[in-house]
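A favour, since you know our structure tokens better than I do. What I am after is a single protein written out in full by you. Could you add the entry underneath, on a fresh line?


***
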Amino acid sequence: MSRTSFDQLLQAGCHFGHLKRKWNPAMAPYIFMERNGIHIIDLNKTVAKIDEAAEALKAIAKSGRKILFVATKKQAKDIVAEKAASVNMPYVIERWPGGMLTNFPTIRKAVKKMTNIDKMMNDGTFSNLSKRELLQINRQRAKLEKNLGSIADLNRLPSALFVVDVMKEHIAVKEANRLGIPVFGIVDTNSDPRNVDYVIPANDDAKDSIEVILDACCAAIAEGLEEHKAEKADDKAAAEQQDEAAEGRRHNRRARREDAPKAEEAAEAPKAEEAAPAAE
């Protein structure tokens, strides 16, 4: 069963592409027709591509890995932040920090700096600073929070990138391509799909279009996370059973070792009784 229906996508306006003169010829396989100078996207292909992307995202989440969502355009920011947070995934909705993937250790240092500021604020290290110095530190902290707050828990490179508008986020896509990180993207008719591993052809400007696609993808991620959680619980239960069985075997070995001397004594007692009359 498909995660989204043709009618849902139609109602959300996912089929509206860009003006014909702005099109990218590489998007030709996903275009159904042209109407009033605007390209219309083939929603049957969009349905199939959403299902394909959703299954791949579910598999990544099931393996316990992270997917980084990227959307810095105004109409997508709030939706992406809400949906990514709902499945506990990192996201970038402000300016893309150049080198975030290709120079990840530097980004981690900036995040560490932010956490150190928090730590020193809480332990009273800054209590002797002047108001001006505190204001400067607070401004620095706010700037770091704005740009890096949502990726503070990202301790290693993400296993995938989900991008809304691959044309606007071309730097993020290029960095992911360079590192071999798979890219999932909502791709409009003016964009190049060749650098995207999982193309979802759809309108990347309309809020409803972005939301209906993210709903399907995040639902798949949530399923993957639940299965990952269930697997961990099963593994834990299996490990506990193995520990109990091992403890039982150790207990039996100890009991046998303790009983061995008693058994020897019991075996030697009749021999001693038989030897006594013979001595008489």
Notes: The radius of gyration is 31 Å.
